What does this fold into?
Amino acid sequence: MLDSIDPLLNGTKKLSRKPKSTKKGLEKPKKQSSLIQTLSSNSAEIGNKKIEIPKGLEEENNVVFKPNPGPQTAFLAAPEREVLYGGAAGGGKSYALLVDPLRYITHPQFSGLILRHTTEELRELIWKSQELYPKVIPGIVWSERKMQWQHPNGGRLWMSYLDRDDDVLRYQGLSFVYVAFDELNQWNSPFAWNYMRSRLRTAAPDLPVYMRATTNPGNAGHWWVKKMFIDPAPPGQAFWATDIETGETLTYPKGHEKEGQPLFKRRFIPATLRDNPYLYTNGDYEAMLLSLPETQRRQLLYGDWDIAEGAAFPEFNRRLHVVEPYRIPSDWPRFRACDYGYGSWSAVLWFAVAPDESLVVYREMYVTKVLAEDLAVKVLNAEEGEKIRYGVLDSSTWHRRGDTGPSIAERMILKGCKWRPSDRSAGSRISGKNEIHRRLQIDEFTDKPRITFFNTCTNLISQLPLIPLDKNNPEDIDVKYSNDHLYDALRYGVMSRPRSKSLFDFDDDTRQKFVPADSRFGY
It folds into this structure.
């Protein structure tokens, strides 16, 4: 087995070496003493031996493939169960995905599968594999009928397509130790990814199971891929797999011997054009990407996941609007805003007002199936020790429905959680959206945005850039969009303090009072 791993790791052994013949047939792969454990982005350990990862695949004395330093190397060395590699175009995703399963293909029990969305897209991947595989693994055989590569030792790698959700039934009853999706965003839901996870199994203790994917931002699956791989943790950082709807860590169920323990880890490894010197050096590909419209340019050149086609708030930029938490001075006024829902979601946001009138969203609460009285208690507990000037709550919660006693708002107020109704006048939705646009813009005087968000407000940060415009009314968001609870809370909050003036409207002495020279803004 090390015959296939070492060339990927240190280049000292060659995949081109033919297996030795024995009386019983081909030489069995050497048994791996332990699974690969990643120590860093460019080193690993097999048994007690520390080695560099990876130096290249060699054909005699010629290097056939050598991973680029950085993200491509990190991807090939990643030990997590599920890993997404990509971001910007030109980062070397396809070749990395083709090389990755070669770590274990000499194992007789290896069975891998690489998927594309359609057969036409699959063909290009097959051509690339036909250029690469025979050079580094003499004796490997491609079967057009089976769409399969087979190693002389017995390892097999299928290359196939999965167009519709019901295409997964073609893999029912099969098992794989390796499943990879090329251009994962082309699948408009996580159904196929989740189903193929059920096909992972292994009986060999030295053969791990894992899933891999590559993609750029955009396309039909942008929203769910972002929720699964991008939002839970900073790029490059491993994290325990979460439920993309609730954000909760996936754990073993009650009654299981591992009850409560997390299931497995995921990781997103971003790459940009700069990480691929073969495409970046002469500048032609970069020039082509720079010529694209803004949305496509930010997605394909910069790997920006916070922008989507038809997004209502293209001004949002994580690098500008998201900040590390800092101590908010006690003299900054604070308030909160809430959109209540029991069957759906309740969203609460806390705001602080800086001396220049910019807003800081420093806390969020996003819960479901919580009664009004219980939500009031949660809110009061969260802000214990703080002075909250006021709270803004969806005005519909003041309505009584039949003979049911106090309204939702009244039940919360009776618990000591004070609120005032949000503005529900005609045009308030449009005015609220416009106010968010103004807040996201960069102030002419401070060169800073008029609203920022602590990076702990993970749900709001992930949802805001994906909120779609109403195609029939571009002045509003799509009213059919269901994930608008945090947006509504944000809208109620900013409309309680509409920013009508720029600092240019004040004289020099007043501006100096608003913009102190210290760094307490936390940027």
In short: Confidence is low (pLDDT under 50) at residues 1-56, 500-508, 510-523. The longest strand covers residues 359-367. The radius of gyration is 27 Å. The longest helix spans residues 119-136.
